[in-house]
Every structure is written in structure tokens, then in C-alpha cells.
């Protein structure tokens, strides 16, 4: 990823590998002379404590359309079908919708 990054660019590492094998090799010449940066991030660098309330407020105000992000909804009694659909790639973002009877 570093070699594909332009001068002054930044590589954000978002995945964590096996704790036992965390070594990475990089070209320090390229890193220094081309002023590139490598940075780790968790949760996109956002604080869930502030970001989740902000997203909820945007959703309530109609500024955040979550409906388009959901490809299929399921009732709780369809949980096995939902899981099978996920494993078979039949939905991108499935959501289980709970009713009062489910509690």
C-alpha cells in the first residue's frame, strides 16, 4: 500500500492481524523522502461515545437514510434464514427487526 501512495500520502491500517506476527517491512527511503505516513485506526478514528449520538440525531432529523443500506429485513423467527442468506451472499446488509413479542 505504501508504494501505491503518492508523495505526502497516508496509509491507514484498519485491520489487525495475528498478535504473534505483527511485523511489517517498508522502504524507509520512500517513507522519508516522499513524506509518506503510516497510521493505525480503530473504529475509523472516531469516538463511538460522540459519533453514535451524532449519527442518531442525523437519522432522526431525516439527514441519514439508513433504509438504503439494508438489503433485507428478517423477523427474529427467521434468524436461521438470515444467517444462511448471509453465508450464501444473498444479502449485503441484513437486519433482524424485533417486535414486542420478541422480548
Automatic annotation (TrEMBL):
GO terms for biological process: formaldehyde catabolic process. GO terms for cellular component: cytosol. GO terms for molecular function: S-(hydroxymethyl)glutathione dehydrogenase [NAD(P)+] activity; zinc ion binding. Keywords: Metal-binding, NAD, Zinc. InterPro entries: GroES-like_sf (IPR011032). SUPFAM superfamilies: GroES-like. Belongs to the zinc-containing alcohol dehydrogenase family. This is Putative alcohol dehydrogenase. It comes from Gordonia rhizosphera NBRC 16068.
